[in-house]
Design a protein that fits this description.
3 domains; binds magnesium ion; 453 residues; binds thymidine-5'-diphosphate; Ribosomal Protein S5, domain 2; alpha/beta; 21 strands; elongated; 26% strand
Length: 453
């Protein structure tokens, strides 16, 4: 019998070492290196088809390669389709990552249930009864979906051959086990091996495969990091578990852009698609409140109106506190410094808290001006008109800078019933026939003057 071969892997980043060491030289994490048994099987597990190694690939002239765009599979879920770039590409591997309990299994089961063709949902986490109970809540009379509770890849492939599904969902990659390697399920070498087998299956049969992957907050178990290089698309499902909204975004996409965003709402019967997110992100208070301002931002290609809340109060302790939720704290500090210097506001002895409502995080610089407006409004306790919104970046000199695709932002604001929008004087607005009043400013000082006299 061959000698057992072992290697050391960092459980955090997947780097491989010949010897144990305390710190991973690759990702600098401590105590993450563990020994794993590896042993190569004589023949690959997915081998029903002719081995591709017999076909020798030859270089082809790029002009001679036919680029017939393959029809994408419509997932019947508009948000997911958009994030993927128009549907699932046949033969592709998609990885869906997210914190435990965020709704990954729910989303994928929901897709598997509503697709009009044969889907196979493989679960190593829940029993068939548990999945059935969940399915009853989501879509009680689905018939095209097959459930398999199995973790050994060899047995999984045998069942796949029998069922011949059009799409395969694996929940989760960390529970799969391949006999080709001896280490336990969830270890780096197992994840790498089982994913390789699935990639081979997907490419040879042109069947799309969706993998669910776990990540933990401290990243101690083998997260989907090493997987990200192997798969075609990496989706991230995120959101605050205390909020009902969930955001789906693509971190990597070989077949589309990574700018798109899908928004869902977790309900009693699964995830509902939110097709008009601006409406839910703006609170419907009747009275005018000081310290809130609306920003017209863009997430991917999609305009989004968000509400920014600020609270400015006298500092209780010596050092004033600055805290931001959903907005970059460094950028908040920068904006406060600009206000101090350019608009003459003495915010140095004030606590400033900033919050983007709805639990979302935005890094579009076009919300700067709304942050300025919210902070100033809270500081002097004067409300901003509810029908006004903002779309501009603020520079260090206190100048109001233009932002990209301003027409789209204006259009969205107009559609949602805003009557005025504040933008930079240097913005080029292409259309001239807006009903909404467009207010152009060039300096932060002008905004202060306009809003609060
Ligand atoms: P789950 O999909 O199991 O999360 P993950 O696979 O990412 O770990 O779902 C987690 C939460 O979703 C769970 O706490 C209950 C909630 N949920 C609903 O609110 N409504 C539903 O219809 C379902 C199925 C789940
Ligand atoms: Mg799950």
């Amino acid at each position: 019998m061959a000698k057992t071969k072992t290697t050391f892997f960092c459980q955090n980043c997947g780097a491989q070492f010949a010897k144990w060491q305390g710190q991973c030289t690759s990702c600098k994490e401590w105590n993450t290196i563990a020994e794993e048994v590896i042993q190569k099987a004589e023949k690959p597990v997915w081998s029903t088809h002719e081995s591709p190694s017999k076909r020798i690939a030859k270089p082809q002239r790029i002009s001679e390669i036919s680029a017939h765009s393959e029809a994408r599979l419509d997932t019947k879920n508009n948000e997911l389709n958009r994030v993927l770039g128009g549907g699932i590409v046949p033969g592709s591997l998609t990885l869906l990552g997210g914190e435990p309990g965020i709704g990954k299994s729910t989303l994928m089961l929901q897709i598997a249930l509503q697709l009009p063709f044969k889907t196979l949902y493989i679960s190593g986490e829940e029993s068939a009864q548990q999945i059935k109970m969940r399915a009853e809540r989501i879509q009680p009379n689905a018939t095209n979906c097959y459930i398999l509770t199995e973790t050994k890849t060899k047995l999984i492939f045998r069942q796949i051959e029998e069922v011949c599904p059009d799409i395969v969902v694996v929940d989760s990659i960390q529970t799969l086990h391949s006999e080709a390697i001896e280490s336990s399920a969830g270890s780096i070498s197992q994840i790498r091996q089982t994913t390789t087998e699935l990639i081979k299956f997907a490419k040879e049969t042109n069947t799309p495969v969706i993998l669910i992957g776990h990540i933990t907050k401290d990243g101690t178990i083998a997260g989907p990091k090493i997987l990200e290089h192997m798969v075609d698309t990496v989706l991230q499902f995120e959101g605050d578990r205390n909020h009902i909204y969930r955001i789906l975004r693509a971190n990597k996409n070989r077949f589309g852009s990574t700018n798109e965003l899908g928004i869902y709402e977790m309900q009693g019967n699964g995830l509902r698609e939110v097709s008009n997110p601006s409406e839910i992100l703006i609170s419907k208070n009747e009275e005018e409140l000081s310290g809130t301002a609306i920003a017209a931002t863009l997430e991917g290609m999609r305009p989004l109106m968000i509400e920014i809340q600020a609270l400015v109060s006298s500092a209780v302790y010596g050092t004033p506190q600055r805290s931001a939720t959903g907005y970059n704290a460094k950028r908040l500090n920068m904006i406060l410094a600009v206000l101090e210097k350019r608009a003459g506001f003495k915010l140095g002895a004030k606590d400033v808290f900033l919050n983007i409502t709805g639990g979302i995080t935005v890094d579009d610089p076009a919300i700067d001006l709304a942050v300025v407006a919210a902070v100033l409004s809270s500081n002097i306790d004067v409300a901003i008109e509810k029908t006004m919104c903002f779309a501009a970046e603020v520079g260090l000199a206190g100048e109001v800078r233009p932002v990209t695709r301003v027409d789209q932002r204006i259009l969205e604001a107009e559609k949602l019933g805003f009557t005025s929008i504040v933008i930079s004087k240097y913005c080029k607005v292409e259309r001239k026939d807006y009903a909404i009043h467009i207010l152009k400013v060039s300096k932060v000082h002008d905004v202060v003057h306009h809003l609060f006299g």
